[in-house]
Known about the structure:
With about 200 residues, this protein is mainly alpha-helical. The protein has helices at about 20-40, 55-60, 65-85, 95-105, 105-120, 165-170, 175-185, 190-195; strands spanning about 125-130, 135-140, 155-160. The longest helix is centred in the first third of the chain and has 22 residues, at about 20-40.
Amino acid sequence: MAFELPALPYAHDALEPYMGRETLELHHGKHHNTYVVNLNNLVEGAGLGGKSLDEVCVEGFKAANAGIVNNAGQHWNHNLFWSIMKKDAGAPAGELAKRIEHDFGTLDKLKEEFKAAAVSQFGSGWAWLVVDGDKLKVMKTPNGENPLMHGIQTTLMGIDVWEHAYYLDYRNRRPDYVQAWLDHLVHWEAVGKRLG
Ligand code: MN3
């Protein structure tokens, strides 16, 4: 079964002005789609045909197969990214709010730590909020890598800090993009559901 580009769960202009229509059209329709096409072209030759996306990520990373790591990783990363965004969707609630308070003190402290990771990722990559053991933790990964490849079973949210994610809307101002994303684009209810 070939991997497929998922439909965006909202219209291309649904996240404006924080993430513009043109950014979403190119990012989803061109960048993400290219990762899916490349992954499908590589997966049989890598001996990973028929495996789940999670398995392909983990096994490709173990085998240090750069093509698989980049393309399977980016497919996995973008699937998550689209699913945890919604414009002005409120604040963390319930179990997620409790866990944030317990592990970070306040939501602002979490945002501060997450922003620092996202801004300091040198070059392309991602910053993440994950569950590591029994604690919420912020981490970052380069290029197409993701927390799953590093042994993390539960990833709650992640921000794409490749330039293609923000350059049309924010030019070189990555910190402004990350701040706007944290303040306006995180779908906290969807993030909370990922706690399981
Ligand atoms: Mn991207």
